[in-house]
Amino acid sequence: MTDDEDRTILLIGSGPIQIGQAAEFDYSGAQACRALQEEGARVVLVNSNPATIMTDPEMADKVYVEPITPEPIAEVVRKEEPDGVIAGLGGQTGLNVTAELAEQDVLEEYDVDIMGTPLDTIYATEDREQFRQRMRKIGEPVCRSETIESMDELENAVEAVGGLPVIARTAYTLGGSGSGVVDDTDELREIARKGFQLSRNHEVQITESIAGWVELEYEVMRDADDSCIIICNMENIDPMGIHTGESTVVTPSQVIPDEAHQEMRDSALKVIRELGIQGGCNIQHAWRDDGTPSGEYRVVEVNPRVSRSSALASKATGYPIARVTAKVAMGKRLHEIDNEITGETTAAFEPAIDYVVTKVPRWPKDKFSDVEFELGPAMKSTGEAMSIG
């Protein structure tokens, strides 16, 4: 890799606004573009949505409005010969296409580094069986689950996790697509068939149901020196079984005891270190009161990228997660990144808030009058409102 001033960095946008992937990703992408230019890098942006802020001419040195699929992006790589690509700033779409480019040897052929979070980490978080094994390695509790590759394995998988109800989940998807909490065999078969069609690796995970547990999220930041901070934690008012994008969310958490918060805080730091994530990530836990001081929790999943939750955390705390993630990918350490709000501290300081922030989702009932807007594991909301008090 060349010096910062000579680097050409490929940034992959999130594409069109859709359910599960809306303006939050443009907010993060625009932050990242500015951060990379501050470091003297030449920014090449690929995004299929020309109506975004990040595709404005001043946001990048070269903008390509192309489909976010491997073929057109491979052409951009051949033409621009970037030194590196940052996978985690274009949401799930950017993450998936970066993995596909690596699998097709495009990145290796043109000597393009995956900056920040390594490819192995992307696989470890998106492949649910790999993720479960990595969590067990460090002693973190996870739900009982079985990964299946065909409908013939479905019945045995349900028995292995303790029977119905179960949660069916797919890998490499966004907004809970192909997922569901089910207690009926016929419905489970239908969801599994849909999951196989949507999953990039043709796998569906059958997991014991923890519907009704409290869902909590931790936004965590880590640099190459293994310095980690917790940016904030968020509590979903609606329980597990309801997609976090469908739930009202409050930060900081309100109902869990401090012992439980400290335990899950330690868990989040263990998880990000085990996975080797560099930059920001979102770690989801499920918790329930079992009568002990700290209760019982499970590590549910990790998003090694910017997300809806990271945009909320940035706005709630003032900590620019996408900006810091971009600079960490460029090799900066947290203590070397200035906090633009305070003007005195650095990104290595955990933000502290003395107020409560609430996010409420919005469902487009005026546009989709024939859709049943019932809360569930798949996301249907297309926007949200935030309040501070």
Topology (elements, then pairings):
Elements: E1 8-12, H1 23-38, E2 42-46, E3 62-64, H2 70-80, E4 84-86, H3 91-103, H4 106-109, E5 113-115, H5 119-126, H6 128-137, E6 145-148, H7 154-160, E7 166-170, E8 180-182, H8 185-198, E9 204-208, E10 214-222, E11 228-236, E12 249-251, H9 258-275, E13 279-288, E14 296-303, H10 308-317, H11 321-329, E15 357-362, E16 383-388
Parallel strand pairs: 1-2, 1-4, 2-3, 4-5
Antiparallel strand pairs: 6-9, 7-8, 7-9, 10-11, 10-13, 11-12, 12-15, 13-14, 15-16
Helix pairs in contact: 1-11, 5-6
Oligomer: single chain
Q: Can you tell me the CATH class of the largest domain?
A: Alpha Beta
Q: Tell me the CATH topology of the largest domain.
A: D-amino Acid Aminotransferase, Chain A, domain 1
Distance between the termini: 46 Å
CATH architecture of the largest domain: 2-Layer Sandwich
Average residue-wise pLDDT: 91
Write up this protein.
This protein has 389 residues and is of the alpha+beta class. It has 3 domains: 112 residues, 3-Layer(aba) Sandwich (Rossmann fold), CATH 3.40.50; 65 residues, Dna Ligase, domain 1 (2-Layer Sandwich); 175 residues, ATP-grasp fold, B domain (D-amino Acid Aminotransferase, Chain A, domain 1), CATH 3.30.470. It contains 11 helices and 16 strands. Helix 1 links the parallel strand 1 and strand 2.
Briefly summarize what is shown.
This protein has helices at 23-38, 70-80, 91-103, 106-109, 119-126, 128-137, 154-160, 185-198, 258-275, 308-317, 321-329, and strands at residues 8-12, 42-46, 62-64, 84-86, 113-115, 145-148, 166-170, 180-182, 204-208, 214-222, 228-236, 249-251, 279-288, 296-303, 357-362, 383-388. By secondary structure, the chain is an alpha+beta fold.
